[in-house]
Design brief:
With 130 residues, the protein is α/β, with parallel strands linked by helices. Helices cover 43% and strands 20% of the residues. The chain is built from 4 helices and 4 strands. It has a 4-stranded parallel sheet, covered by helices on one side. Helix 2 packs parallel to helix 3. It is elongated.
């Protein structure tokens, strides 16, 4: 009985691993670019960044995240800088003379998904969940 159960569980694990390898090889050419706009979100920013990279790793997709800070007065930037050492995360401070909208709309950028961290309803619209 135990041998049969181990065979079923083992074949399930093997098929899941093969599916992930297949998805990674098939979708490796497309990198999703995400622009996170944040201000005073120290309670949520670490969870958002870690979750995004975890979900993309599980689904076999590739993601590049740029974080735009609109003048946080809390530890949002400190948390993001610490996470940028672990993940592909670019951090930019929003300067008054250069808005993030102009940066995102420049012709040299790929298709970018813009998400405000304080608006949790936008998380559902990410193409990562397609």
């Amino acid at each position: 009985m135990w041998i049969g159960l181990l065979c079923v569980v083992g074949s399930y694990i093997l098929s899941v691993c093969m599916l992930h390898v297949f998805n990674r090889s098939r979708k490796a050419d497309r990198t999703y670019r995400l622009l996170l706009v944040t201000k005073d979100n120290q309670l949520h920013i670490e969870w958002y960044i870690r979750s995004l990279f975890f979900i993309t790793r599980l689904s076999g997709k590739s993601i590049s995240v740029t974080l735009i800070d609109e003048g946080s007065t809390d530890d949002t930037l400190g948390i993001a800088e610490r996470l940028s050492k672990l993940y592909e995360l670019e951090i930019m401070a929003n300067r008054p003379d250069h808005s993030w909208q102009q940066w995102a709309e420049s012709s040299q950028r790929d298709e970018i998904v813009i998400m405000h961290v304080s608006n949790q309803k936008q998380l559902v619209k990410l193409p990562l969940f397609e």
